[in-house]
Model the fold of this input.
Amino acid sequence: MRRSVAYQGDRSVEDRLTTIGRRINGLARLQRLRPRRGLQVSRITLGRVTVETIRTVESAHRPLADGAILYLHGGGFVLGGFDTHQHVVIALARRTQLPVVHVEYRQHPDVTVDESIADCLRAYRWLLDQGAEPAKTVVAGDSAGGFLAFATVLAAQAQGVEAPAGVVGISPLLELDNERRSGHPNFAADRMGIGLVLPMVVGCVGPKDSDGHALSPVNGVLDTFPPSLIIAAESEALCCDAERMHEVLTDAGRSCTLKIWPGQLHAFPAFLPFLPESREARDCIVEFVQDCLGTSKRSAPGTADTVTGNGSAKSPSA
Done:
């Protein structure tokens, strides 16, 4: 992605992004060669959207009404799918003993972001039609999938569909116009170059007749938004989005827990799952899901606060 930003040849941005996406998705298919024991996997196609449900053998008999997770993968709206994020959904299925419904929504160059949101909303509606209870369902996603998790819930509420019990965003993209992010200290310092790449990506995948302001979850109607957990790396560009959403939600009186890890990279629980910090972040996600579903052994759910990965208090940056 960073090389694409600096590219000076005659290939269009759209062409370069499409090529990158296809290459990474092709490599990710190699994960399918590794056997995954103790799991039940099923797929169904909903028009042009495909969903894959992952269950452990031990929890295969549990109805969706007992609890479910809808997972939306990241990839900058240009790459990603069942193969790239297989390890994430399997870890969630094993740790929570809940069915995890993974959505392979349409992406660039086939559609723009608003159509990706529509695909995810269709998957959420399907999940409810299959017997899942909104009060026992959590929607989660990383990076661009974090954007879709928040945007899908907002779209559901706008259409009169009952919201889920909770929302999880792992390094979520929450604004498309880049206005506030470009002034954040992390914009140019992000070690993965996310801040520099995003304007190019959004320029390709965003709605052609809009500046993206209305689609950005941070600008949405949030006064009835469900409890949320946001995880971010302290030095990443999208820490700005995480801090802004935390601020907006808490100002609206909504429950939002923001957890920030120092010394980590963008979406580290998804990209670097073997790290101790990634395991710690997954523990936080599992606890949040249990809180939302009322199965936690703790006395109270997560509150509207901001903490670092080691649990000490930390104030969001200005």
Remarks:
- The first helix runs from residue 2 to 6.
- Residues 17 and 78 are 7 Å apart (CA to CA).
- The chain has one domain: 2-308.
- The beta strands are 39-46, 49-56, 68-72, 100-104, 137-142, 166-170, 228-233, 256-261, 306-308.
